[in-house]
């Protein structure tokens, strides 16, 4: 009787262990197929879905980053199609299959960008819903403690219309410069490098969104005590009108503009640009792999300065953005080397 009982327990453990092993293998295969960027994006969208169910839905469909990412994806598909026309006309063997494979790869690689931009632009009703009180006063007091003066007010003494145009240009480049690297990686079929960039971007945006919810903060230009003569000049103006055009576009397109100062994603994007340009610059200029990095340096440094000059961010916002940019890059590299691969799961 005791023997049968022990045998039954042993069989039960074998069944449980077998189910656990199969479940683990299935999960590893799923993670390998999805990749880190898509997996993290699914988690991000799940969290967003919880907020939608809890607080209601408010989606954005036609906004700058969404349109840019979607246009790039469609443009890359078009490039592959046009490049394949001669081979298709000659009915070259395998041309159609190659075109289908390239199209599938582009759409799969760029889907996280497009979906992420759509999700992020749809956050208007969610910033400030978890924590009602904002932290601008704390950020202002930190600035005063560190510098003895509010930097966004102090830097106004250097105002010049042409400088304002340059700062507006640099500030608006935050999404364009990393996309140049991403496009060239995509065109050169360096999908592993592209996935690393995509993963870093998802991490940045996901953590940034979480911090927006937990620490809502408006920019200095909307801080009530500054609206009565603290800034000189009271309103920035530019020579060529770029700042005025950009400011109107940002205030219309950025749904979280009044509560999305901490951290500065512009600063974190700038970090991503420099780190990606340093490692993957050969995708942009193969014979001079560091050229694009050095081109980006003055633009990115100006971008960081513009966050203060244009009164968009407090100093703690920028520092948090730097930390977020470096951290997300390091995490993306770690995930690239430690994420389960299809080959590994097949061996198991």
What is the N-to-C succession of helices and strands? HHHHHHHHHHHHH
Question: Treating each run of at least 4 consecutive H or I residues as one helix, how many helices?
Answer: 13
Strand content: under 5%
Determine the structural class based on helices, strands and strand pairing: mainly alpha
Provide the gyration radius in Å. Answer: 24 Å
pLDDT averaged over residues: 83
Q: What coarse outline follows from CA principal-axis ratios?
A: globular
Number of strands: 0
Question: What composes the largest sheet?
Answer: none
Count of domain modules: 2
Report, as a whole number of angstroms, the end-to-end distance.
38 Å
Helical percent range?
Answer: over 70%
Poorly predicted spans: none
Which short descriptors sum up this protein?
348 residues, mainly alpha, 2 domains, 13 helices, 72% helix, globular
Task: Please characterize this protein's 3D structure.
It is a single chain. This protein has 348 residues and is mainly α. It folds into 2 domains: 48-126; 132-339, no CATH class. Helix content is 72%, strand content 0%. It contains 13 helices and no strands. It has helices spanning 2-55, 64-89, 95-121, 136-147, 151-154, 161-172, 176-187, 191-214, 242-253, 265-284, 291-309, 315-338, 342-347. The chain is globular. The model has no long low-confidence stretch (mean pLDDT 83).
């Amino acid at each position: 009787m005791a023997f049968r009982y022990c045998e039954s327990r042993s069989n039960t453990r074998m069944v449980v262990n077998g189910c656990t092993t199969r479940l683990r293998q299935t999960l590893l295969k799923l993670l390998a197929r999805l990749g880190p960027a898509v997996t993290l994006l699914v988690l991000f969208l799940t969290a967003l879905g919880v907020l939608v169910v809890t607080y209601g839905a408010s989606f954005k469909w036609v906004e700058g980053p969404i349109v840019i990412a979607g246009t790039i994806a469609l443009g890359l598909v078009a490039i592959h199609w046009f490049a394949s026309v001669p081979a298709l006309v000659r009915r070259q063997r395998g041309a159609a299959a190659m075109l289908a494979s390239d199209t599938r790869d582009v759409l799969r690689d760029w889907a996280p960008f497009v979906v992420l931009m759509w999700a992020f632009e749809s956050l208007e009703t969610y910033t400030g819903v978890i924590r009602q009180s904002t932290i601008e006063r704390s950020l202002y007091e930190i600035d005063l403690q560190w510098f003895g003066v509010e930097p966004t007010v102090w830097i106004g003494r250097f105002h010049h219309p042409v400088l304002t145009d340059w700062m507006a240009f640099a500030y608006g480049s935050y999404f364009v410069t990393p996309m140049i690297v991403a496009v060239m990686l995509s065109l050169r079929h360096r999908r592993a490098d592209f996935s690393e960039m995509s993963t870093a971007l998802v991490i940045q945006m996901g953590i940034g969104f979480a911090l927006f919810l937990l620490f809502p903060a408006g920019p200095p230009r909307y801080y009530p005590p500054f609206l009565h003569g603290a800034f000189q000049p009271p309103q920035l103006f530019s020579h060529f009108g770029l700042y005025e055009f950009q400011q109107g576009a940002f205030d219309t397109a950025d749904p979280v503009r009044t509560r999305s100062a901490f951290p500065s994603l512009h600063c974190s994007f700038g970090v991503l640009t420099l780190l990606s340009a340093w490692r993957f610059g050969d995708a942009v200029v193969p014979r001079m792999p560091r050229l694009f990095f050095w081109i980006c340096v003055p633009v990115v440094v100006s971008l960081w300065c513009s966050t203060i000059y244009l009164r968009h961010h407090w100093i703690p916002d920028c520092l948090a953005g730097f930390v977020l940019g470096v951290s997300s890059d390091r995490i993306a590299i770690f995930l690239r080397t430690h994420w389960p691969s299809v080959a590994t799961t097949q061996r198991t």
